[in-house]
Amino acid sequence: MGSYHITVLKGDGIGPDVVTEAMGVLECVGKKYGHDFVFNEKLAGGCAYDAYGEPLPEETLEACKNGDAILLGAVGGPKWDHLPANLRPEAGALLKLRSSLGLYANLRPAIIHKALSDASPIKPEIIGDSLDILVVRELTGGIYFGERGYREGKHGEEAYDVEAYSEFEIKRIAVQAFEAAMKRNKHVTSIDKANVLESSKLWRRTVTEVAKDYPEVELDHMYVDNAAMQLVRNPKHFDVIVTSNIFGDIISDEASQITGSIGMLPSASLADGAFGMYEPIHGSAPDIAGQDKANPIATILSVAMMFRYSFQKPDEAAAIERAVDAVLAEGWRTPDIAGPGDVPIGTKKMGQLIREHI
Question: What is the pLDDT of residue 1?
C-alpha cells in the first residue's frame, strides 16, 4: 500500500499522447497492488513558453520539488528552434530541471525485446535474440555545465567550452553504476578519454578507487572511440556502462539505435535518495502529435523504472515489463515498430492492451 504524488509534465508534440497512456498504466497498477496516485499536471517546454514566456515556470519547478517523482513526455520542436538558448525547451527546461533538482545520474537501458530482435541493424549472429545494456551517464557536470564563452584569438574570434569534473561528481556516479551492476551481471565498463584529457585521467583514477568497494564487480576501462566501435562489433561485452555527460549523450544514443527501436527505450534521471524524473528517450515528433500514431511503450517502461527506483516496488515494475513483453509477443505493433505485413495499432490501443495484461 502507498500513496504517491507524481508531477506530470506532458510537454510538447507526442508528449501528451504517450504520457496519457502511461498515467493509465500507473492507475491500473495502483488498482492491482493497492497504491494511490495523485497527479499534479504542470507545463514545461515549448507549451510553457507559449503560455508563460518561459520553458520552465517557477510554479512548475516548485511542483517538481514537492512531488515524489516526475513523469515527463517530451519537450521541444522546430517551432521553438529560433529562440535564444536559455528559452529553448531543451536547455531552458531540461537542463534547468536536472541542475535545479540535482538529477545527476541518468540511467538509460538499451534493451532488445526478443519479439523485436529482427529490428536491430546489427547482424543476428552478433546480436542474438536479445540485448540488455544499462548506460549510466553523469548528468549535471562536464562540458554542458562548464565555463563557456567567446574570446579574441590569434586567427579571429574563438569559442570555448570547458570540460571539468570533481572527484566528488565522479565518485557518486560511479557508485550508482556499481550498485546497478550488483543487481545485474556484475560488470562495469567505464568510458573515458584518459589518453588525452586530464578530466578523464581523474575520472579513471576515481572509478578505479570506487571499484575497490565492489570486489564482486568486474571493471574494465575503454577509450570512448574504441567503445563506440565495440558497441557495434561486440555489444554483448557490455553490462553497465558508466561515463561522462557528453560521452554518455553520444554512447547512449548509439546503444539505443542498436536496439532498432528508439520508441521502446525508457530512462530515469535520479538524485540522491529516491527522487527521480522518468521519460522516454525519443523526441517530441510534432509531425504525428495527436494522431494516435506514437509508440507509448518507452513512456510506459519509464513508469516501470519509476516503480523500481523511486518507489522501491520491483514487483510492480516487473508486472509492467511482463505486460509489454506479452503484447509484443502477440504481434501487436505501433507504426514505428511495424514490419512488412504487420497491421499497426494506435497509441491508445497499445496502452489498452498493456493495461489488460497487467
Answer: 60
